[in-house]
Amino acid sequence: MALTHATTDTAGAVPPGQSGSAQTGSPDREFGVKARSQRQQIIRRFLHDKVGMTGLAIFVLLLVFGFIGPLVDGKDYATQDANAQSLSPGNGGYLLGSDAIGRDLLAGLMQGVQRSLFIVLLFVVIAFPLGLMIGALAGYFGKLLDSVLMRVVDLILTVPLLVVLIVVASNFPSSRTPLGVGIILGFFGWMDLARIVRSQFLSLREKEYVEAAHAMGASNARIIFRHLIPNTLGSLIVWTTLAAANAIILEASLTYLGFGVNAANETSLGRLVSEGVQAASTRPWLFYFPGITLLVIVLSINLIGDGIRDAFDPSNRRVRA
Q1: What's the CA dihedral at 248, 254, 256, 260 to 10 degrees?
Q2: pLDDT at residue 84, as a whole number
């Protein structure tokens, strides 16, 4: 009995030299966790958003098709072949067929994607700074300036945008080129952005950090550009994507009504659809291929916008930041 008791005490004892060995595997280690910035969290959420990434992948493929495709295909849409008129897809070396004067529809689609995206780029470059500036001035300074600017915006919005564009395009026939259509869309497409920015600024200008910046002597320009605009970035990016898709639809509508792109040897997706709809019953490829391309490019931009909106939404818990 004495031997057994002694053995048990010996087995349960900790040697003096190993008093700290029991702490070797303890959770006293420090784990270095690098905090992600807000920008990194937004990018991470977007990269894990299946909807947004699907739209981005489709849009990149369209960019490759429109800008790299012509280098591979080697055909010019302006070239007319009298021996290849109204060929159906796959005949005579025309993958998507040809139109009534022998132009390659595939080359036309590539050029149409280029011109439509060029119109969208012009629209964003013009409408974005206009809407941002007017909305920022109205929302930040308020009072009389806000009333004047917003009444102007309300006055313009009382007339449907498509009607305004038709009136302007009809009075300036030389503007019916991708460059002219893009400029017209830009100068009359900023009103929604101005109202969005104004509403954001009305809320943000009452925040504590704005009052602190005022107390420290920061200028109005510094507060607007360094503090307020960065905090409206999410709304600005979402508007840009959704307005870009709307610009493509507006261009197609203008062209369909005869007030859009109609310059010689110049085309766009809207013009291809407008010309193809007249032959939809006899040569359906002239209508359906441009129509499907137009739908796909609008859909991809809308999907990107949805993904960006979810990425900027802090309440989105589908992806851990």
Answers
A1: -100
A2: 83
